[in-house]
Amino acid sequence: MNSSELIYFIITEKPKTPTHIKPGSICYIRDYRYRSEVSLKRLLVECLDSHYNLPHDISKDCMQKLNADEADLLLACQPESHRLNLFRNTDAVQTALTLTVGTEVMVEEDGEKLRGIIRYIGPMNDPNYSHPITGRYFGIELQGADKGKGSTNGTFSSKKCFSCEKNCGVFAPFSRVRPVVPTSHSPSMSMHHTQQQTEGIIPGDSVMFVFNGDVRFGMVVDIQEEAGTPMVRIST
Predict the structure, then answer these.
(1) Are 104 and 117 within 8 A, CB to CB?
(2) What pTM was computed for the model?
(3) Residue 101 CB neighbours (<10 A)
(4) Which of 47, 48, 188, 199 could join 27 via S-S bond, C-beta 3.0 to 4.6 A?
């Protein structure tokens, strides 16, 4: 079944029935059925997170529409509550949609932020009739000092997604991946610092800083000198 023949939704509020469907679940309905039911207050949808391959009658007030790319990206993120938070952070999803093979990124793995290059974008498990999408993941080849800190050579189960040296690859959902060079959707700010404050800091470093009296966290993406004063650009 072609994914373009389907209409996707994310559950934003817990339905009164069925009670086992959680907010953040991804569901879908076939396009021809959606067009025939578009005027109704409820839709008969199938949930990708459900263990039951049965349609569920859910109120439209409990869901919001997604395009196929958004649904595929979000499905890779667990649990459902985290996925819902990501959906509400539209910049994060839009940034992920701009990532391509060859993009330099920072990936979070075992509490560390590692530098790498995207070598693969796609599913870890093959789609089937009841699961037309299975989640879009990023296969990343680690670079420089971070080589060897991964967990794969580019193979998942018996599926070869990309090739790299042993333990030099990572598979991750978009929630753990950030471009080294921010896109127009990546929130960032520039701050002036003294030479002493920027000593030892390089792009890719995680930093804590004070802005308008608040402690904030971010990642250094660029350091430039302006009129003899270092200016640090931080992705927030």
Answers:
(1) yes
(2) 0.76
(3) 13
(4) 47
